[in-house]
Amino acid sequence: MSELSRRGFFGLGAGAAALAMAGCSDFTASTSSSGASSGSSGGSLVFRWWGGTSRNEAYQSALKVFTKKTGIKVTAQYSGYNGYFDKLNTEFAGGTPPDVFQMDTALTSTYAAKGVLTDLSTYIPGTIQLSTLFPALRGAGVVKGVNYGVASGSGYAPVLYNETVLNKLKIALPENSWTWDDFSTITNEVAKAWGSGKYGANDASGDDSGALQPWLRQRGKDLYTSSGELGFDATDLGDWWNYWAGLRKTGACVPADLVANYGNADSTNPFVAGSAALTTGWGLAQIAPLMTATLGEIIVPRGANGKTGQALNGGVLLVIPTKSSNPTGAAKLIDFFLTDKDAIKIMGTQRGLPPSSLAETELLPTLSASAKLDVTYGDYVNQQVAADALADAPSAPPGYGDVKTALGNVSSAVAFGKQSVSAGVSSFFSQAKTILAQAAA
Amino acid sequence: MASANTDQRVVAPGPSATAARIPKQRTRKRRRHKHNRAAYAFLAPWLIGLFGLTLFPMAYSLYLSFTNYGLLSAPKWIGLENFRLLFQDPNFWQSVRVTFEYVVFSVPLKLGAALAVAVLLNKKIKGLGFYRSAFYLPSLLGASVAVAVMWQQVFSQQGLLNEFLGVFGIHGQDWIGQPSTALWTLILLAGWQFGTPMLIFLAGLKQLPKDVYEAASLDGSGPLRTFFTITLPLLSPMIFFNLVLETINAFQTFTPAYVVSNGLGGPVGSTLLYTLYLYQKGFGSLQMGYASAMAWLLFLVIGLFTALYFATARKWVTYGD
Fold first, then answer.
1. CA of B49, closest CA in chain A: separation in Å?
2. Mean pLDDT of each 10-residue bin along chain B, 321 residues long
3. Are A91 and A99 in contact (CB under 8 A)?
4. Do the Cβ atoms of B177 and A257 come within 8 Å?
5. Hey, what CATH topology would domain A159-310+391-440 get?
6. Which Gene3D superfamilies does this one have (chain A) (predicted)?
7. What is the pLDDT of residue B27?
8. Contact A116 B258 (CB under 8 A)
9. How much is the average pLDDT of A402-412?
10. Which of A54, A55, A60, B103 could form a disulfide with B250 if both were Cys (CB 3.0 to 4.6 A apart)?
């Protein structure tokens, strides 16, 4: 599940078991409370999301408040990420999608291209108030100038490190100014000092948003161009994979058979299991509860030019299908999560860092230590990104999900030595081009 | 296995019957129609199922296989384009390779295990009912997700198998994480679920005539020779039946690969069974036309294999009469 990094960062978290079985076990629970104060029925809604246990619980308590305040009954449907979009696709095909659902930012364009999402402009600002939403996040749900979704959280994927282990091995903690060369040095030191079966870092050679994207942006490239083509070339990818091949050879990163476990938020993840000391692609708030060791959080290594290359992402979005039976109610729900203080408090950082100035003032005093560290880190990266002075990352084109899968598959094949770096590079580019051409057709 | 001759020949009607033949036939016909109507009424649920849930979807998927159908918009006719793309798709060929490897190894393994256990259970031993149930149990759990999840635990890095090997000082690997062994764990899983063919073999063994065995033992034939010259040939119809069914089943295997690889068919496509790739294409990538084309190719290949079995059956299947 290595392709889950970005989502993982936003608290998809909670258990590969839930993920693995999502296809067969999703839960439907009605959280409507019939004793709504208004008495008059505001209609009903079907709301679908994916998430781990804690996010599910937060959503459900928030929905109870929503029903109380608006009289709109909400049927809650939730599962893990695996199989989530498969099921959704089937329902779209049958003409019965949920009335409002949680969307992966990177897949918005895929669905927008099919014409199945509602243009939210008719509800803004009448029903949905975006005024407190951070300006950087307002474009998260926009495809070709049309706004289809509202961001629920924000963030930058950091590097996490196991402070307990680094201290024990007497290896200096990474510093904010560190580069990819430093990353290589530190992980090699860890591998040498820590002994057999232990590694410096998780293998991020297939992690597109947590590692490859910042690395590309540091070189003035990106994952995609604004016209929806690949934003990097064979040399870039070859250099990237050669960098990781070097780490793999010396045991600085985990061996090939553990690459795929990188996407799991459980003990099969080498970082969580305590056999790798650093990892990209995960937020502290999601991983910290799973481990007893003290964890640290730091910006992704910089390029030689000092740039961080980080790109802000909008966490998960809430969107309304065109076939929604209650689009007005759905728009109210979107606004509720954005502007209602109770909802903001209940949801906390379950869907990423506070996305609005309102959420930030409401949440900061009450956050847990690791969530607070996440927020401080987010503030720091915000400044650094401004200093980068790089263009915003173009949004992912239709076909994004399949390209991501192809990247994961080929980097795994390269890691196993089934393909040479150069053969892998050409295989990836031919697959990605076919996918993007088909998705655009 | 035919019993004594109890046939009763139909006696031809005498000449006196010819006069009343025509009107009688009519009433009989009408009555038969009425009978038929009742029969169709009883068959209706099944017929509705056959047409509504099997034949119509099949015909529709045949149509879809010639279209570009993204699930969310109307299908667009593109002729043979899907098939042309299929044959250029490296993942398609990977899934074909993996599936053939799976079928070629899992079917004989499963049938061999089924036959071996059936022969053992055919002995007169105490607690036979218990053993029979115990051996059948894995198949009851059959294609269930729980078993596949358990399999994942057994063969993972910290799994049961490596714990066991550790006792002997052998340092095991992550059997599911390695492309060279991942498919073999699935083949082993299939082999372990031999219950259904075992029951069929057992039923067959119980039917074998005792006198042939008595004659063989009088002639001094040992157990091995008896097995190969008497049991196997007499059992060949059962073997044929199981072979056909299990081959079809193996081609259609989906659940274990989906669960064990978290739906990805990894590592490095080593567990990308054909149906799993079909599912990824249809529901993940929204290419239902493409997936339909794949489904029809699979249908043709399974048909081809079944036809091949039937064609060779004359040479090795003996019906004991």
1. 19
2. 41 46 60 78 90 92 92 86 90 94 96 92 82 81 74 80 82 80 90 89 89 86 86 91 94 89 82 93 88 95 94 84 55
3. no
4. yes
5. D-Maltodextrin-Binding Protein; domain 2 (3.40.190)
6. Periplasmic binding protein-like II (3.40.190.10)
7. 62
8. no
9. 90
10. B103
Are B178 and A427 within 8 A, CB to CB? no
A interface residues, B as partner, C-beta within 8 Å: 1, 16-17, 19-21, 23-24, 82-83, 85-86, 89-90, 92-93, 110-111, 114-116, 256-261, 268, 401-402, 405, 408-409, 412-413, 416, 418, 427, 431, 435, 438, 441
Q: Which of B145, B268, B284 sits opposite A418 (nearest CB)?
A: B268
Kindly tell me the sign of the dihedral angle through the C-alpha atoms of B78, B79, B80, B82: positive
Torsion, Cα of B302, B304, B305, B310 (10° steps): 130
Domain boundaries, chain A: 2-153+315-366, 159-310+391-440
State the DSSP string of A19-70. HHTTTT--EEEE---S--TT-S---EEEEEEE--HHHHHHHHHHHHHHHHHH
B residues 12-71 closer than 8 Å to A (CB): 68, 70-71
Residue identified by tokens 């809650």 is: A76
Q: Is the pLDDT of residue A209 over 90?
A: no
Instruction: With H, G, I as helix, E, B as strand and everything else as coil, classify residue A302.
Output: strand
> What would the mean pLDDT of A273-291 be, rounded to a whole number?
85
pLDDT band at A190; cut points 50, 70, 90: very high
Are the beta carbons of A412 and B266 separated by less than 8 Å? yes
Nearest to A149 by CA among A60, A256, A291, A49: A49
Q: Within an 8 Å CB–CB cutoff, is residue B283 touching chain A?
A: yes
Give B258-284 pLDDT, tens digit per residue.
888 877 887 888 999 999 999 999 888
Q: How many residues does chain A have?
A: 441
Site from B153, B264, B281, B288 to mutate, A interface, most A CB atoms within 10 angstroms:
B264
Chain A residue at shortest CA distance from B176: A257
Confidence of residue A422 (pLDDT cuts 50, 70, 90): very high
All domains of chain B, ordered by start, with CATH? 25-77 (no CATH), 86-316 (1.10.3720.10)
pLDDT in tens, B91-108: 999 999 999 999 999 999
Residue B266 sits at the chain A interface (C-beta within 8 Å): yes
Report the residue from B145, B174, B284 with minimal CB separation from A86: B284
Contact at CB, A90 and B283, closer than 8 angstroms:
yes
In angstroms, the separation between the Cα of residue A381 and the nearest Cα of chain B is 33
Residue of B nearest to A415 (CA): B268
CA separation for the pair A195, A251 (Å, rounded): 10
Q: What is the mean pLDDT of residues A225-245?
A: 94
- How much is the ipTM here? 0.75
- B146 touching A (Cβ < 8 Å): no
At A34-55, the pLDDT tens digits run 333 343 457 899 999 988 777 8
Cα dist from A45 to A40, A72, A332, whole Å: 15, 7, 11
The CATH fold of domain A2-153+315-366: D-Maltodextrin-Binding Protein; domain 2 (3.40.190)
- As a whole number of angstroms, the distance between CA B150 and CA B146 comes to 6
To probe the interface with B, which of A82, A89, A428 has the most B CB atoms within 10 Å?
A89
Asked if domains A2-153+315-366 and A159-310+391-440 share a fold, the reply is yes
**Residues of A in Cβ contact (< 8 Å) with B68:** 441
